[in-house]
Amino acid sequence: MNMIGLIFSNIHDAKMGELTKQRTLASVPFGGRYRLVDFVLSNMVNSDITTIGVITKQNYQSLMDHLGSCEEWDLNRKDGGLFILPPFGEGQTSVYRGKLEALYGAEKFLARAKGEYVLLSDCNVICNIDYRLALKSHIESGADVTVICNREDPAVDGETKDLVLQADDDGKVTEVLMHTGYTKDNLIGMGMYILKKDLLVERISKAAAQGMYDFERDFLQLEFNQGILSMNTYEHKFSVLRNVDVPSYFANNLKLMDDTVRQDIFAENSPVYTKVRDEAPTFYMEGCQVDNCLIADGCRIEGSMANTLLFRDVSVAKGAQIKNCIIMQGSDIGADCYLENAIIDKDVTITAGKTLVGAPNSPIIIQKGGTV
Fold this sequence. Notes:
It holds the Pfam family NTP_transferase. The protein is an alpha/beta fold.
């Protein structure tokens, strides 16, 4: 495919609280056995994009451990492959503040990579999409930039989104709004953009010279309003899970219990790849109760659970009650515990008899490796 992929691994770290204290957003666990980066990376590979750069900022050791040689994504190849792009700065400059500054550090990668077009993508938006169709739409439109977007019914009228677009019947953008309320008639940017490599490189150099760093504000919105930039939209009409903060991350994991959402995200003809770990099947002890849960391999369950997601190698002792929770890999839930609306990070021990109760919009988080 005549397109390069670039993934931003850290852009939304600040809003994810304890979940990104020891890791980059791209390596935050999701869905029982995956990391957030797996979804966009799999979409790219399934769309025949074979040269991909991952732009990092900080705390990316766990991301490197997860990606390894990239053989699971068939990216351990001589021609193309996956490249980790560490943070880049000159003189006394700090680590990048936005996507334009991050892209400045990827200029050499872009110069070497073979491809006329570039797909830029955040890693916090989960969907199953064929980028080949988006590229086709971009080329046919003749626009400078195509924004991949979707429509949503706001939970509250005027709910705020980072990038809100209005477009005509042909998909041509007529208005670009930032950090504003939207209605079900608006299109919402998914943090994914297609444009020509030459145009991107030119704008990166311009931004560096003028001290600009925000891709959406200083490039898309500014140049569109000045009449310099033409924009097209490609509407994705299947499930989209935006992980913009802890409450949305918590809700999106639990949305995987919904058959429609799960089938949209894990489409049969477009699989999601991840690092392979061999585990024994989950062992359900006599007397345990499990209702509407997603459970990975290697778990041992003696207690009761409802509407809960378990990652690999989790142990739930007898008498424990768990409702609306996310329990990550290697955690141990002691006897007679009560957990509700909680996110238990990796390798956590909850000792016997403890009670942890959060709220759906403010779940309790227990840090990686902690003991309660």
